[in-house]
Write a structure and sequence with these properties.
Layout lengths: L6 H8 L6 H6 L4 E5 L16 E6 L2 E7 L5 E5 L13 E2 L3 E3 L6 E3 L4 E3 L17 E2 L1 E4 L2 E4 L18 H4 L5 E8 L3 H6 L35 E5 L2 E4 H7 L4 E6 L3 E9 L10 E9 L3 E5 L4 E11 L2 E10 L6 H9 L2 E2 L4 E2 L11 H6 L11 H9 L17 H16 L4 H11 L6 H4 E3 L1
Antiparallel strand pairs: 1-11, 2-3, 3-4, 4-9, 5-6, 6-7, 7-8, 10-11, 12-20, 13-14, 15-16, 16-17, 17-18, 17-23, 18-19, 19-20, 21-22
Length: 440
């Protein structure tokens, strides 16, 4: 375990820009760059006639557009001619045109017109705007930015996770921005001890009153099962059993975390242990149970070193998901079109001392626990100073994952990280709720 970290390693773990060790690792994997819904005119009217927007990914400024064939294209934001900003390009259906000198780029990035050049000029044939492969899965646009060292390299196959293979009726995607580095955003999800405190509700609610689609209420409405004929809500499990036994298992895709909580420790026989399993998928995805029939796959896109988009894909193994209800529950806490939360440092994340004294352990709302995690990671600072922290036994997964990430950076020159990306894509990780949350 990494008990104490020096500043050099903290920087190495958190930087993602081009030319950094962390950036090189991230560029071996597919990254989420937008929700498909961001190009829906019903969500953003600007997309009706000009489906193009600026995006920032791994510290790089890019433009993403959807051509008239419905395909997404991603390319560098600054024109290959003289560097003008293509976020203001003219959208022409089959490509975009720089307003500075009229140079046009096809969706592939190939320059196809240089109208100010002499008739017969072949200059455009020799110019290509840097562009990146894209694919759409489960309502999310993904891109691969791995050409940094080898422009001719091909992306790995797409990860074979269940959420990417689910029917559109049984998955739903949303995102949100946090003002912090990606690693501290990711680490909150691989910390099995924090829900007993950060997400603690001081009172339980009637399980029949709240459906599994409720925003952020997996520690309130979800049921843990029956104990001596009594159905326990997850809020009670987390509140009363705050010292889980945490086990980690390194796997081909990352790490499996198991949190064990004895529900009837006084029993001499027929002991019941609540088992909650989280999958940490390298390099920045975790999969957790939301309810008895739904999981969340959450990916943490480094926008740059101090900003992160979390992308959540909800996958149901039961009934079809009510997309309108899921979106409305989350939209009420979100500012568009940038998907920034309405709560933040500017309003103390909605903190209420009265609520903290009487209803929740944190005091930052009962309807959306995303703001709980947001406070935890943003209050650390834009980039957490890990040199001053003191890790305990319950932080075993965080310490081990940091070591895994550092090792991946050190071994990238031997291409081991690329092989990991390919192995992950070819695997068949089962992520049904029964895999995560239950009894033994």
């Amino acid at each position: 375990m990494i008990q104490h970290m020096d500043q050099a390693r903290n920087i190495k773990l958190t930087q993602v820009g081009a030319g950094t060790p962390g950036g090189a690792v991230m560029r071996q994997f597919w990254q989420p760059v937008a929700l498909v819904e961001e190009f829906d005119p019903a969500v953003d009217p600007r997309m009706q006639d000009r489906p193009l927007k600026a995006v920032r990914v791994l510290g790089e400024d890019l433009v993403l557009f959807r051509d008239t064939a419905g395909q997404f294209a991603l390319m560098d934001r600054h024109c290959a001619h003289r560097g003008a900003d293509l976020a203001f390009a003219r959208f022409e259906g089959d490509g975009i045109r720089c307003p500075f000198h009229g140079w046009k780029y096809a969706s592939s990035g190939q320059c196809v017109e240089t109208p100010a050049e002499p008739t017969g000029s072949t200059l455009c044939q020799r110019v290509k705007q840097p562009s990146y492969p894209t694919t759409v899965r489960s309502g999310v646009v993904f891109a691969w930015l791995g050409k940094e060292k080898n422009p001719d390299s091909a992306p790995p196959p797409f990860p074979a996770l269940d959420c990417y293979k689910a029917s559109s009726t049984h998955c739903f995607a949303f995102k949100g921005m946090w003002q912090c580095n990606w690693l501290q955003a990711f680490e909150v999800g691989i910390d099995p001890a924090h829900p007993s405190f950060l997400h603690r509700f001081l009172h339980d609610v009637d399980l029949e009153d709240t459906g599994s689609n409720a925003a952020g209420k997996q520690f309130r409405s979800a049921a843990a099962g029956n104990v001596a004929g009594e159905r326990w809500p997850m809020s009670r499990v987390m509140r009363e059993l705050c010292q889980p036994e945490i086990k980690t298992l390194e796997t081909s895709y990352g790490m499996q975390l198991t949190a064990l909580r004895a529900l009837n420790p006084e029993a001499t026989e027929d002991k019941i242990t609540h088992t909650r399993i989280t999958h940490a998928v390298f390099p920045h995805t975790f999969i957790i149970p939301l309810s008895e029939t739904m999981t969340i796959t959450q990916i943490h896109l480094p926008i740059d070193d101090t900003h992160t988009y979390w992308y959540s894909i909800f996958t149901s193994t039961g009934e079809a998901i009510n997309h309108a209800a899921m979106r409305e529950q989350r939209a009420r806490h979100t500012n568009f079109p940038d998907y920034t939360p309405k709560s933040g440092k500017h309003n103390q994340w909605g903190f209420s001392a009265d609520e903290q004294a009487s209803r929740t352990y944190l005091g930052m709302g009962e309807d959306d626990i995303n703001v709980h995690d947001q406070w935890a990671v943003e209050s650390m600072g834009a980039v957490q100073d890990r040199t001053s922290e003191n890790l305990g036994t319950s932080d075993i997964a965080i310490a081990r994952y940091r070591r895994w990430l550092l090792n991946a950076m050190d071994q990238l020159e031997a291409r081991s990280t690329s092989r990991l990306a390919e192995a992950l894509a070819q695997g068949t990780l089962a992520v049904t709720p029964q895999t995560f949350d239950g009894f033994r």
